[in-house]
Amino acid sequence: MKKKYYSDSNQLQITFPAEAPKTPAPKPEPSPVLEQYNKIKQKYPTVVLLFRMGNFYEAYQDDAKTVAVTCGTNITTKGGKNAESYFVTGFPFTSFDNYAAKLIRAGYRVALVGKRD
Q1: Rounded CA gap, 99 and 90, in Å?
Q2: What digits encode the pLDDT tens for the residues 5-54?
Q3: CB–CB of 71/65 below 8 Å?
Q4: Alpha-carbon distance 77 to 6, whole Å?
Q5: Residue 67 burial by CB count (10 A; 0-12/13-18/19+): exposed, middle or buried?
Q6: Structural domain boundaries of the chain?
Q7: CATH number of 32-113
């Protein structure tokens, strides 16, 4: 239904089109790394997963929170308009021994994950 508005001067009629029905935004697709994380995490829920990404190891979602609290790393989010937003933290691969030792001393099991091709 169109809404009609009248101007005060000269009784000019202005008609606006009806508002388009609002459709829910499509659910964003997870990134390939996040898909891989979710798949492995379902199988091994108690293990902290560390993904080798270039010169860094990265942890995602709940594992990112665990690593950040246990090891003192910064946590941030990744994702954008067309991607699902998720937590991430990381550290240089050359520091792996130090960070893995902190996680293991805190009682966590750690697994390294390579990139899926």
Answers
A1: 10
A2: 555 555 555 555 556 556 665 566 667 888 889 999 999 999 999 999 99
A3: no
A4: 49
A5: buried
A6: 32-113
A7: 3.40.1170.10
